[in-house]
Amino acid sequence: MVDLLLAVRGLNKQFRSGTQSVSVLSDLSLQLGRGESLALTGRSGSGKSTLLNILCGLEKPDAGRIQVLEEVFDSRKPAGSRQAEARWAALRRRQIGVVFQEANLMPALSLLDNVRLRARLAGQADDKCEDWMERLGIGELADRYPDQVSGGQRQRAALAMVFAMKPALILADEPTGSLDRHTAEAVTRQLFDLQARHGCGLILATHDAELATRCNHHLDLGHQPET
Amino acid sequence: MKRLFWLVLLPVLAGCPEQQEPAGFAGLAGVADPEAEVPFLQPGPGDRLSFPADFGPHPQHRIEWWYLTANLETAEGDPLGLQWTQFRQAIKPRLADAVPPDSGGWPLEAAWMAHAAVSFNGQHYFAEKLARGDVGHAGANAEPPAVWLDDWQLSELSGNGTWRLQVSADNWSYDLSLQINGEPVAHGDQGFSAKSASGEGSMYFSLVDIQIEGTVTLGDRTLAVSGKGWFDREWSSQFLKTGQQGWDWFALHLESGDKLMAFQLREEGGAFRSGTWIPARGEPVALTPGQLRMTPISGPDSYPRQWQLEVPDYGVSLKVSAPAGDYRNTGLYPYWESPVAVSGSHSGVGYMELTGYGN
Amino acid sequence: MTLLAALFSHYRRHPLQLLALATMIVLATMLWTGVHHLTSQARASLDQSESAVAERQQVTRADGEPVSVRDFVALRRAGLCVMPWLEVASPGAGRIVGVDPLAAACFDRSAKDNEPWRGELDGAPFVDISEAAGLAIGQKGQKDSQGVLSLLLSGPDSGSALPSGYRIAPFTVGPDTGELGESFLLNLDALGMLVLLISALLLRSVYLLGLAQRRDSFALLHRFGVPGRQINRLLLLEIMVLALVCIVPGVWLGRWLATGLGSGFGRALEGLFDTPLYAGQDGGWLVPVATMLAVVLVACLADVLRPLARRLSVAGRGQSLLPALVLLAGIALSVWASALAWLFVAVAMVFVAAGILAPFLIARLADWRAGGEEDPLSRWRHRELSVLARRLALPLVALQFAMAMVLAVQALVTTFESTFDQWLVQRLEADYYIEVPEGADASLAVDWLSGQQELAAGLWHRVIRGQATLMNSVGESGPVVDVFALGPIGPLVTGWQLFESVGAPWQSLAEGQGLMVNEQLARRQGVTVGDTLSLKLGHKAIDFPVLAVYPDYGRPAGEILIPASALPTDFETGFQSLSISPGTLSMETVTSGLKQIWDVEQLTVRDNRAIESLASAIFDQTFLLTRAMTVLTLILAAIALLLMGWVFFSTRAWYFRLLVVWGLPRRQAATQLTRLSLSLTSAIALLALPLGVWLTWILVHRINPLAFGWSLPMAVYPRFWLELGVLSVLVGLSIAVLMRRQLNSPASAPESASALSGGER
């Protein structure tokens, strides 16, 4: 693979539940190149969200090596965790866009202000923000607040925020999970469209098997975590 | 044989340091040099009574009292019990013939406490008065005999052997004349009354034949009363030994004309008993601990209201009972003081005092 | 599942909310009970010190001779319950009072708490009388220091059997502080009401939060066919049960707290009249429990007051006009009101309006700043502040009120203290005060004192007290006023502070050009400088111009100050005394000289320094308690804001975490939150300032003159402001710490963006 974006090797993650420990991810490896997309499927609790959190540094794996762009995080080389955290934060700020199923926007800011805030944090000029909103079809909602628009519009705004930061990698956790089929389809189309156009990587956690087939790669995390 | 508990009162006042007990045999120490620390005197066997001086105060002893109990009857024949007591507690001992301190300095060498009670119809009236000594409003005198605290007073009526006792509490009072008959009865060894097996004791005598008449006013009701009384004088510098919990004291007038004084000091696992048998005719006899049996009929936890008293050598086997009612004197230091009725081998009346039973 | 269980299931799922509500009830109950306890203690201690220093009776000899031990004995033997009271001015220990606890035993036992000489005499001023007598005798060289013996009488009825040759006289040992104390207690009561209000606000805020979060389940129940009224009834039951469960430990804690605090203060002031201050006062359970139950019910079920409550909880945009008008009206009323009741209405209006406006103002200000902000992160912070201000309106307002109250009380107490001290110093300028014995000719003393070369001129004066009748313009008799005549007018009085005066007032007074009036008289009669008062001092009415108005705290009556030379010869003298600072002359010379010219054996000489320290100490105690009470209120309000902040931030934690998801390093995100919470608490502290100053002004300048006829000088104490500022920073930092914890623990995504899930804007 010419332009490697993400490389994961030997990833392990366990959760403690009482006296038992539940292995959610075990010896997982994957790679993703620029412009590629990966679908994560599996039942609830199979570790999709955990994997996404680990891939953006919000959670720590028990073991494994993760390389995002030039940054390498290896659990065997416990460099200062604060330093690792700072590198992760820098990555999230400029390179990794995260979209959740809901609540991606600051409630107290208008849609446009949300997009601007995200762009500014990523070091991007905020004059493109309105363009992004236009392209996602929510241009006229710029001054509305999150609670004044529909769920689909909020998710479009979330996409606008992610694209406004010009990320290398997008992590989307069921981004259309709470939308009706029609809206979900529209939002999904926009997501893939833009991802393809800007050549960023996309990892998409979803229940939707049909959606998964649209991605270049597919990783099924299985049914139940191993005890 | 009473009021040992008053020993604890005085330290409350003005932080007087506890006086040390004089060492050595009583009466030997500290008389020669008036500048020297005057010790308290401790009575012992061989000490003798002296009249009339012993009616007056004993400033070199720590504690003493003048104590009258009376079994009276109203004009209607209802029994009425009556008590008057005045205590002196020395804080600082003083020679008997020493000049008392100037009253203008409000000296605190002694404190006085007076108790008065009337028991009538199941009701118990009690009052208490306190005063410091040497100021003048409380004191005692041997000749003519007088004991007073504020307006309560025992005094002699015109030198004819009759005394007058006046007491006035908030809502009740009494005014009695006391006809003293007979000689003082010395208890124990010619007046030295042992209070423990190891020899501590007090000087103790009684007037046991007193004819009383007068009036008792309870609220707005004035009763004419008459009957007999028992007067105690006792002084010492120490009574209760460590381990002694309290005492039970009886003074009984029997219809046969005989009289009995008996007491016991209760201690862990037993009691020290003593008494005096005073026959209608003949000399009083000191009773040794072995000659006396005293058995509470009710339990030991509260004041036992009924007792079995036996002096087998004199054919005495008595049941002594307090009338129904609560006869606790609820002053600074509560104790039980009630008239009693006597039945059994003899019948009669008397007084009973119980201390050290908690409340 | 029963309906009740369904309703309660909310708290099973959110035990923290139940805990918060319960904690709030417990804390509020504790606070108010503590305050109530302390207030009644303050009242009791004040009453007690008054009864200890005043309102007693003594027996004196009819022939005017001082009483002696012999008199004591004679009276006791006559059956009278009298107690010796031997006062000795000791150079080392100050004023010492010797009493005889044995003689006091006949004093009414039920009044035990009021008689400090009962029980252990463990130090100044009460000692055993033999000790005091020893001191007096020890000082025989200076005869004046010898003790003054009084014989206190136990009850008013004891005088019936008074033997001939004796009479009953009033007995006082200190200045009458009664009214000053009363005024203070009135203020305490007003503050107690404020505490109750603050408690209610706090309770309501927690309750409303819970209610909002349960709205979904209510709607569900409603859809299942449960009538709304039944839900309300069950809610009422629920809150009653919770209240009862929490109030009892709250009351217990409050009393424990008050006792703890109280005994600490008691220890601090040991030796004065405080020995039984915290003894025996266990107080009932009924009052605190009933009061708190009522407060809980009103606070939680005040939906009958829905319009007001809604405005308090969410200050809507554009709804500020009415509260602003109420605020202005309240302030206007507070300035112009002429009756106490209206003043209290004004206070209520201003507080309600301020309570509604404060969060609204903060929110609007934050929105306004957000609008002008270019940096999106700062804009986010301002917008978030706006949400916070509106969402935490109730606890914020409670904190604001508490801060305002603390500010006012601190200022009031400090003002009281300094004013009182200053006034005492003025009034007790002379070192000694000598009563002129009855029948003695004071003018002899004046001649004698004037003849003393060593006594620098003016360091003494003669005081003549009596009464005069004020005449109105048509010559009819008006009210009776106290007369305070002085001569000569010298440095002992010329340092007095005057409210208003003509030029060179003391000189004019000395020259007999008029009189001065106390503030009470000036206020009541509407007298100002330059007016003329017509007074009947003897048989004839005389006109006097008013030269000045002087402060006279604590005196209920009007008083005039005139030079002794202006008194007509037929003036009926009530009482005469001399105030003397002997300077280089020994006091012994003065008193022996006076005894000689008056031909008496004993003089009543009072050491004014001792009186001064006695009076100050009595007030210190009350002030300490008051401060404790307000600080408690502040602590509770701060805890409430913390609690509410914590609950609120729990619901909003997801959004704060978005900052981290978006790549803001945790430390920077935390800094943002810290700035946010600090802005909030400093804003409320800033808004508390004017309210506190206004409340101080109301208490000092409006309520007091209306209630008592005299005012206190108004002072502001910026140090207190600074202290409050520090406190607000501390609260803000604590909230920030709580928020950081939320940042670090993974939050679950809200199910919807509704206000119920922390998604409000």
From TrEMBL, chain A:
Gene3D superfamilies: P-loop containing nucleotide triphosphate hydrolases. PROSITE patterns: ABC_TRANSPORTER_1 (PS00211), ABC_TRANSPORTER_2 (PS50893). It holds the Pfam family ABC_tran. It comes from the Bacteria. Transmembrane segments: none annotated. Keywords: ATP-binding, Nucleotide-binding, Transport. GO terms for cellular component: plasma membrane. Residues 8-227 form the ABC transporter domain. It comes from Marinobacter guineae. One of its GO terms (molecular function) is ATP hydrolysis activity. This is ABC transporter.
TrEMBL record, chain B:
Pfam families: CrtC (PF07143), Lipocalin_9 (PF17186). InterPro entries: AttH-like_dom_sf (IPR023374), AttH_dom (IPR010791). It comes from the Bacteria. Residues 63-237 form the AttH domain. This is Carotenoid 1,2-hydratase.
UniProtKB/TrEMBL annotation, chain C:
Residues 192-299, 629-743 form the ABC3 transporter permease C-terminal domain. Keywords: Cell membrane, Membrane, Transmembrane, Transmembrane helix. It is a multi-pass membrane protein. GO terms for cellular component: plasma membrane. It is found in: Cell membrane. Its main location: membrane. InterPro entries: ABC3_permease_C, Membrane_comp_ABC_pdt. It holds the Pfam family FtsX. The chain crosses the membrane at residues 16-35, 190-212, 233-253, 285-308, 320-337, 343-363, 392-413, 631-655, 676-700, 720-739. This is ABC transporter permease. It comes from Marinobacter guineae. The lineage of its organism: Bacteria, Pseudomonadati, Pseudomonadota, Gammaproteobacteria, Pseudomonadales.
